[in-house]
Amino acid sequence: MTDATPDPHGTTDEEIRRLRWQCRRGMLELDHLLMPFLDQGYRDLDPRRRAEFVTLLAQQDQDLSDWFMSRRVHEDPRLHELIRHIVAVVAAQHP
Q: Any idea where this protein resides (predicted)?
């Protein structure tokens, strides 16, 4: 696939490269969740869920860590569900 060729949901290789950079965090635990999810689950998301993923990436590492490690629940039920989905996708690939 080239940069100009979108997948069926409209994602280009360039978009994935930008997201990959945003998935690189200051916490290794987050890298081990976000990077595999980008490779294994992101392209299956519908446009609304993709926008929610981008919203998550804009959050602070400590908040992300708390949500992903279940120390806190995200106040937005849609983002909470996306967090649970990300964990499930990565866990299924790395039991």
A: Cytoplasm
Q: How many Cβ atoms are within 10 Å of 36's Cβ, its own excluded?
A: 17
The CATH number that domain 13-93 falls under is 1.10.150.250
Instruction: Please compute the mean of the pLDDT values over residues 32-44 and round it to a whole number.
Output: 95
**What residue spans define the domains of the chain?**
13-93
Measured CA angle at 19 (ends 61, 25), to 5 deg: 25
Using N-to-C axis directions, what is the helix angle for 77-93 and 47-57, rounded to 10°?
Answer: 90
Q: How far apart, in Å, are the Cα atoms of 52 and each of 1, 3, 32, 85, 90?
A: 25, 23, 19, 12, 17
pLDDT bin (cut points 50, 70, 90) of residue 4 is very low
Question: What's the rounded mean pLDDT across residues 17-32?
Answer: 94
Contact 80, 49 (CB under 8 A): no
Per-residue pLDDT at 67? 97
